Amino acid sequence: MNDDTYYMLASRGEGLYKEKGSKFIAETFIVMDEDEAKAAIASVKKKYFDARHNCYAYMLGPDKKNFRSSDDGEPSGTAGKPILNQILSKDVTNVCVVVTRYFGGIKLGTSGLITAYKTAAREALDNAQIVEKTINEIYSLEFEYTLMNDVMRIMKEEDLEQQNPRFDLNCYLEFSTRKKTASRIEERFRNLFGVKIEHIKTV
């Protein structure tokens, strides 16, 4: 990961691999959490209800610490891991890849299965559009109205866009900034006497 950027899909992709009568159908999904990943997997299982295997892998979050893979009845390590490795190879996150297998009656062996699941997953990812995203920090500011000009000067100098503003005797607003500039901007507001700044979340 490049300090405060990461890659994710902007569109879905599909892939297909055929070998000795078996057919491997791959689909990619944009998912933001585990519930969305599980829903994507469930939708494929419903769509291909008569298939023998629906193997998958997913990766979540800019830090890529949340991931999972499943062989769904295939020999251990022949399906889920090869799919996950393609996700890692593409360096993308917030993605779920499901590969459905229709068995053709001839066993492919361990290496044959790995090749099949890997190739189908890679094709689906290759057919999806990938975009670069920034990791952003969201902050809130609270201050008295008399400090409005000082706050707005920093907002303008740092090219920050105000969100959810409430301007009264006591004022409130939120702003978003890239992770790599966050600590410097946070320090500027902390040095402004009478301004309370709080970190809300990382997105």
Mind telling me the C-alpha Rg? 23 Å
CATH topology of the largest domain: Ribosomal Protein S5, domain 2
According to CATH, the homologous superfamily of the largest domain is: Impact, N-terminal domain
Percent range of helical residues: 25-40%
Give average pLDDT, whole number: 96
Largest sheet: 5 strands, antiparallel
Structural class: alpha+beta
Strand content: 35-45%
Explain what this protein looks like in three dimensions:
The structure is a single chain. This protein is α+β, with helices and mostly antiparallel strands and 203 residues long. It has two domains: 5-132, Ribosomal Protein S5, domain 2, CATH 3.30.230.30; 135-202, Alpha-Beta Plaits, CATH 3.30.70.240. The chain has helices at residues 34-47, 80-90, 109-126, 148-157, 179-190, and strands spanning 5-9, 14-19, 22-30, 53-60, 66-70, 92-93, 95-102, 130-134, 136-144, 163-166, 170-178, 196-202. The strands form three sheets. Strands 2-3-7-4-5 form a five-stranded antiparallel β-sheet, sandwiched between helices. It has a four-stranded antiparallel β-sheet with strand order 10-11-9-12. The protein has a three-stranded mixed β-sheet with strand order 6-1-8. A hairpin with a 3-residue loop joins strand 10 (163-166) and strand 11. The radius of gyration is 23 Å and the shape is elongated. The chain starts with a strand and ends with a strand.
